[in-house]
Design brief:
The complex is a heterodimer of chains A (278) and B (61). Chain A has 13 helices and 7 strands. Chain A is α/β, with parallel strands linked by helices and 278 residues long. In chain A, strands 3-2-1-4-5-7-6 form a 7-stranded mixed beta sheet, with helices on both faces. In chain A, helix 1 runs parallel beside helix 6 and helix 7 runs parallel beside helix 10. The chains are: A alpha/beta (278), B mainly beta (61). The interface between A and B is medium-sized, with 24 and 23 residues.
Chain lengths: 278, 61
């Protein structure tokens, strides 16, 4: 197995496990009532989603795994076709579906079967008729060229080994004048060597993150113009530590509090938009 | 999956058109069936309403 295949397998297994673990239960709404706190809600609020947005999607659709894409959602217009790369349990797709309305459509692509199954259940629960999910890979999108108005992606492209290919595919499927709106994790410095090599840290959205300039360069090289960084924030460390996949990975690596602080300073949450020139 | 969305799907491997063969459907959507690529003839199954369009075999670079 190549390193790339190994990473893909680990990502699929890791997120498959998350999809299975957080089985929706009728009592786990936005209020903490199951003995624990509403961690997904807390993380989501920190990255800019409103309470109203969170309450508007089916329970279990928000797993609190993203790094925030409210800007992208705000730009959607009725009737548009939206593609969500790495749609997970469907949270952003459902918010997008409300924006584009019944004349629009939203397609979520995810390579983890358990996530797609879960998203489909959520769509049924919420009665969404303009949202569809399919199993697929971001580097090999099963979507026709020039067919999508807006691509959104929330903290997923860092998990794709070949980012240049991911952006090239995004460019192919967008219509002329179509928009790419991604939020993701990037780096502005070096991660400790042990973290870089860790498969667990890859699954936890750290080791797969690339340098910010390289990330923006890959978008430009795919053919995009009007590349705009809307927001760059230090990724909230407490969110990272609370994230099950990241904390498990960091736990395995036995990283000290000081190292953790160092990781926090090189990891950024980035929101970028770009356009395919018409 | 719904028929309405079929129009923008394609083969993840060769980007060819997909032909739909339905074995079970409701008024709203297709539950079981196959999406066959007219280009490379690969079959992509639809199971419990979810099309599996993960790439198969060798993918051209």
């Amino acid at each position: 197995m190549t390193r790339e295949e190994e990473l893909k397998k680990a990502v699929r297994q890791g997120y498959g496990k998350i999809a299975r673990q957080q089985e929706p239960c009728s009592c786990c709404g936005p209020s903490p009532c199951c003995g624990g706190t509403d961690l997904a809600g807390e993380v989501s609020r920190k990255i800019g989603y409103g309470d109203e947005e969170m309450a508007s999607v089916p329970d279990g659709a928000n797993l609190g795994l993203g790094c925030g894409n409210p800007v992208a959602l705000a730009s959607l217009r009725p009737g548009e076709t939206v593609l969500d790369l790495g749609s997970g349990a469907g949270f952003d797709c459902f918010l997008a579906a409300k924006r584009v309305g019944k004349d629009g459509r939203v397609i979520g692509v995810d390579m983890t079967p358990e996530m797609v199954a879960r998203a489909r259940e959520n769509a049924e629960k919420g009665g969404y008729s303009n949202v569809e999910f399919r199993l697929g890979e971001i580097e090999h999108l099963p979507v026709e060229r020039d067919s999508v108005d807006v691509i959104i992606s929330n903290c997923v492209i860092n998990l794709v080994p070949d980012k240049r290919k991911a952006f090239a595919e995004a460019f192919r499927v967008l219509r002329p004048r179509g928009r790419l709106m991604v939020s993701d994790i990037v780096l502005v410095g070096e991660l400790p060597e042990r973290v870089q090599q860790s498969v667990g840290a890859y699954v936890g959205c750290l080791a797969g993150a690339v340098d910010k300039a390289a990330y923006l360069g890959a978008i430009r090289d795919a053919g995009f113009t009007e590349i705009t960084v809307h927001e760059e924030t230090e990724f909230p460390l407490d969110c990272m530590v609370n994230d099950g996949t990241v904390s498990a990975a960091l736990g395995d690596l036995q990283i000290s509090g000081r190292d953790l602080q160092a990781i926090g300073t090189v990891v950024r949450s980035l929101k970028v938009s770009a356009e395919k020139k018409g | 999956m719904r028929r309405r969305l079929l129009s923008i799907l394609c083969c993840p491997t060769c980007k060819g058109d997909l032909e739909l063969q339905v074995s079970e459907e409701t008024a709203e959507e297709i539950l079981e069936g196959v999406l066959r690529c007219s280009g490379c003839r690969i079959d992509y199954p639809i199971h419990e309403g979810i099309p599996d369009l993960l790439p198969r075999g060798t993918v051209p670079e």
